[in-house]
Amino acid sequence: MLKLPSVFAIILTQLLLLLAGCQANRALPPAPLAVTPSVALKNNTGAAGLGDPLYPTLGNGGYDVLHYTIDLAVDMQSHAVTGTTTIRAETTQALSSFNLDFQGLQIQKITVNAAPANFQRAASELTITPATPLRNGEQFTTTVAYHGIPRAIDDPGVPFEKIGWLVYQPGIFVISEPSGAMGWYPVNNHPLDKATYTFRITVAKPYIVAANGLLQATFDQGDTRTYLWEMRNPMASYLATIDIAEFKVVTAQGPHQLPLRNYFPPSASQKMLATFDTTGAMLQFYSDLIAPFPFEAYGAVVLDDNFSTALEAQTLSIFGPNTLFDAAVAHELSHQWFGDSVSVKTWRDIWLNEGFATYLENLWVEHTQGQAAFAATMHNLYKSMKDQKLGPPGSPDVQGLFAPATYVRGALTLHALRLRVGDANFFKILRAYYNRYQYGNAATADFIGVAEEVSGEQLDNFFNTWLYADAVPPEPRAP
Ligand code: TRP
Ligand code: ZN
């Protein structure tokens, strides 16, 4: 398979031409926005999908997960896991059976409300039939005990990386966008069903486990240690991560006493550590620009090999070795607002993540390097879009999810909007959109709605030109 270097590393280093021609552009009407189960319900069977236009089998219908408790022992020699994932959920219909997404690994036992349950598996669909059917509106708990060696997942949306549970020389890391979570725990694997998480991960000493949220405790068992991590804000499954290595851990405090914890390779150079010295200033900048930082902690995991890009795991962005530069640090941080707190309703809305993070990373450039540097960057971004004839980012196909059109034309859509409605309206739009959809989900139409509401302008033509029409729009200019 073609191994592409990091999509955004390239964007950010102005080497976009390398990627010319590797994305599919299609003229499509705006995607329908209602998310409905993709499978007709019969006999109170929960749907096997959530109607995502690009990933019809991701997620499941009939219930809403409230909390995951992922309790795993990880053998760092064989990389096998043994343990139990406990899911607390609430039904949204009567259910005689329901599905989880889970790929690979051997299941030992499943219970629903403490009673053993029957189950069947077909590819990544796990169908559970409780001994007693569930009523509509009922809270229930299901446990899945399993073991085995998690395998990385090949996702057609991510041609540049394997995703999910990944092994490298120093240990293990997890990067799942979009579908990789189901390779290591049973899950309602779609951003529409966010939930809180507890991670209880046991490893041999001297390995260290990083995960999302706050480290609440460690338990010493002689040769092994258990790390208890809590994510107390809603999180999409693709943003869940556990990362295991003999890390060098560096802690600090950000603005408003926000705990910062960075996980570096033991051999980290001074230069590598210094990459993250700006995190506090960036946190301040984006908090002032958008809204207070949405979560209880922040930090980075730095990988020292095998990974060529970066991912905005919630509260714990993960960086490959060639993404250790300011704009990438800003990009992943800004995703915490746009992507992690406000998440997509469907994967087709991906420009709401990547276009926003690419534009916000450049707002940091504007803030630190001034107007002229910012204008030059925007002009270069426009030129690369034009030279590559980047198609519209509003309705990508699976292969186009993380293509340059999503990042570059997505970011330029925001820039064009800013020049069209003026700075005051533009930043009001960003804030209003964020505040309305924080800790939830939004689709492209939701953003357009806020933009029109706040600016008082009719923007259908504008957004059609930028998001859905094939032709490359003229360079955005101040009126
Ligand atoms: N969201 C990542 C970014 O910040 C890109 C990405 C998507 C990714 N899927 C991935 C990176 C899988 C690594 C692995 O641009
Ligand atoms: Zn991104």
Structural account:
With 479 residues, the chain is an alpha+beta fold. The chain folds into two domains: 2-335, Sandwich (Immunoglobulin-like); 343-468, Neutral Protease Domain 2 (Neutral Protease, domain 2, Orthogonal Bundle), CATH 1.10.390.10. 25% of the residues lie in helices and 27% in strands. The protein contains ten helices and 22 strands. It has helices at 7-12, 270-274, 279-289, 326-335, 351-369, 371-387, 404-421, 423-437, 444-455, 460-468; strands at 63-74, 81-91, 98-101, 106-112, 115-116, 118-122, 125-129, 139-148, 164-168, 171-175, 195-204, 208-211, 214-220, 224-235, 242-245, 248-253, 259-264, 300-302, 310-311, 317-319, 342-344, 440-442. Strands 5-4-8-2-1-11-14-13 form an eight-stranded mixed β-sheet, with no helix packed on it. Strands 3-7-6 form a three-stranded antiparallel β-sheet, with no helix packed on it. Strands 18-20-19 form a three-stranded mixed β-sheet, covered by helices on one side. Strand 13 and strand 14 form a beta hairpin. It starts with 6 loop residues before the first helix and ends in an 11-residue tail after the last helix. Residues 1-36 have low confidence and may be disordered. The structure holds tryptophan (TRP) and zinc ion (ZN).
Summarize the structure.
This protein is α+β, with helices and mostly antiparallel strands and 479 residues long. The chain has helices at residues 7-12, 270-274, 279-289, 326-335, 351-369, 371-387, 404-421, 423-437, 444-455, 460-468, and strands at 63-74, 81-91, 98-101, 106-112, 115-116, 118-122, 125-129, 139-148, 164-168, 171-175, 195-204, 208-211, 214-220, 224-235, 242-245, 248-253, 259-264, 300-302, 310-311, 317-319, 342-344, 440-442. The protein has ten helices and 22 strands.
